[in-house]
Structure formats: C-alpha cells, structure tokens
Amino acid sequence: MSPASYLTAPPRVAAASVPKAHRYDDSVPWWTIVALAVFGGVALSSGVVLLLVAVRTARTAADARRLLAGATTGLMVDLEEMQERLARVQERRSRLERSVDALERSQRKVDVLLWALRDVRTVFTRARGAVPRK
Fold this sequence. Notes:
The protein is about 85% helix and about 0% strand. By secondary structure, it is mainly α.
C-alpha cells in the first residue's frame, strides 16, 4: 500500500473499537406484555359493550318507530273524522247565514209595518180627537 492509502483506509484496530451492529434480540419486559394484554382486553371489552349498546339503541329506535306509527295512524283517522265534521259544520253555517239573512229581511219588513201601524194609529188618534164626544 502506498502511504496515501494509509490515510484513507481505516486502521486495522478499528474493528475492535467500532461497536457491532446491535440486533434487537433482547427479551421484552414482562410488564410491557401485561400492559399490551390489558390494553387489548380493554379495547375488546369496550368494543363488545359498544356493540351491545348499539343493538339496544337500534331495538329501542325500532320500538319507538312502531309506537309512533300506531299513534300516527290513530291521529290520521281522527283528522279525517274532524275534516268530515268541519265540512258538515260549514254546511250548517251556510244554512244558518241564509236563515239569519232571511230573518233580518223579515225584521226590516216588520219594522216598516210597525212604523206604518204607529203612523196610522197617530192619524186615527188625531181624527178621533177631532170628533166631538158626548
């Protein structure tokens, strides 16, 4: 080797001073395995609880939907009956309004006749006062 190659080449004793590549062969501490097991158990049990809550909520929603459907059906029947009653009430109201109009016309006629009767009575009363009595 040339003297310049000694400057670029690593020393022969470098192999002893450079640490070997350390492989991760060490064993995992027991508390790490326990912690992972506890985490897995909690995650699994949380998933099961979440699934049970979801199923219960779905059942409750289905029950509520059925209950509301039954109540809505009853309300629809009641609403149809009320619409029929309202139609009958409107018919009766129109008949009543016609009757009230006829009654008002009759009242005006009676008022005119009463006015005429008072006028005739006044004329007869004056004429009777003009006639001498015994």
